[in-house]
């Protein structure tokens, strides 16, 4: 077995082991409390360490698999020589930034080693942190290797690994003059395909370097974030979503919702909206819904007589429905970044989320009525089929109920409920429905999930370094003063916010948008007296709409790739859904009672 294969298996083994520990530990605490207060000693520190390793080993896997989150603009280059040159440039810059981040992490490890801090279960803190420089250095090497298929290109990219040494040679007085040119290089690389975390990490390094602050400050912010008590929910829910997507959950859910709604006018269109919303709830805004369900529901719509354009538009639009429902990952991520309670955000998002699903379904009913008028015969309602399909899909339908009940009753924290969701999904798919073999297939599914969760956690981690500099430089305060000077009305502010989020939501991947924009938007909303929970719902609803916004909304690219439809043709098909959902987002924005009303009824306001 060669060295590459050994490294690959080691990464996969570490990731699967980390996910197993991250799942078991919270469950032991959750179910141990009623049984005499049983608690695993040092569980908090162990979970923190596991999350750190999951982030960086997952990030290493994401580099190997090419699944780091990038801007959609890179897709506009098409293929050919221009795309190859863009890849060489973008990945060379990515390699350089990762090399500098690795060096910054070495500084953090050295500093903590001198302080002699020890985790609660006896492991020196610096030893736990060594995964950061090791993984980042390997990521730098992988980016350099992937920069080109030719030897000369790879050698040129590998030279960039000397960036930490080159930066150390720059006189301190010259650093401010180099910031703008280097920042332009990093941003151009992001536009040409470098991961978003490279852009944010690189900019954070440059800004601290300009101010003569040790670049280890970026790595210190990374490690500080890992201590967030809610953060482990992200990898756990990602794993649960991938397990369901790889099993037979999609087929069972489609059968159930078809039996439930198929007899109605436009019933199959309603079915698509409902099943996609439920599936997106599990998988977040990663595009898994279109990939996993698109090929299943699109032929059903076409066989029932729905036009090609409507069917494509419906599947594309439905791919992001359900983003506001528990236990959606973007909601949890927003709660971490904006420091708002995740449970309140889930409750507040229930009615707005249902509104967007109902609007999509209503447009489907309209189309169904037109087909009925043309002589189509709808299937009859069959109680026996509904009961049989419900019984078959009962395990998947019970998952969101399980998470909500565990969390809402106070029996479990968000992390413990997420661990229960992950364990539940694994048990159902491996031992009850037996769609996934627990030894031959489950590790591979977890590795796929690990590539996404690593990409998200790495992005979130390095973004905290950039956010730290912005706060130190009082940028949010200055931006807030500018907005207050030029925008006097909260209604105008919300309208401007809608437009900005719609446009940026179509360019940025949703996790990137949350990490970059939420820390800036939250204080501005507070200054205009907007409820922070309502602002979070507005923020996420706009990003949900951004998935459909031409020319580079994520769902547009996924649907075009999945069905082989040219983008310009697809734009025409999604415009009606974009307008309908846009009206829904405006209603959510300007009727805050839709978000906060249910919180008031429950005594949370």
Give structural attributes.
mainly alpha
Detailed description of the structure:
The protein has about 600 residues and is mainly alpha-helical. Helix content is about 75%, strand content about 0%. The chain is built from 28 helices and no strands. It has helices at about 5-30, 45-65, 80-115, 125-130, 130-145, 150-160, 165-170, 175-190, 195-210, 215-225, 235-245, 250-260, 265-285, 290-305, 310-320, 330-340, 340-350, 350-375, 385-410, 415-430, 440-470, 475-485, 490-505, 510-525, 530-545, 555-565, 565-590, 595-600. Helix 1 packs across helix 21 and helix 2 (about 45-65) packs across helix 21. It starts with a helix and ends with a helix. The model has no long low-confidence stretch (mean pLDDT about 85).
Task: Present the secondary structure layout.
Blueprint: H1 3-32, H2 43-65, H3 81-115, H4 125-129, H5 131-146, H6 151-159, H7 163-168, H8 175-191, H9 196-210, H10 216-226, H11 233-246, H12 249-261, H13 267-283, H14 288-303, H15 308-318, H16 329-338, H17 342-348, H18 350-373, H19 383-408, H20 414-432, H21 442-472, H22 475-486, H23 490-507, H24 510-527, H25 532-546, H26 554-563, H27 567-590, H28 593-601
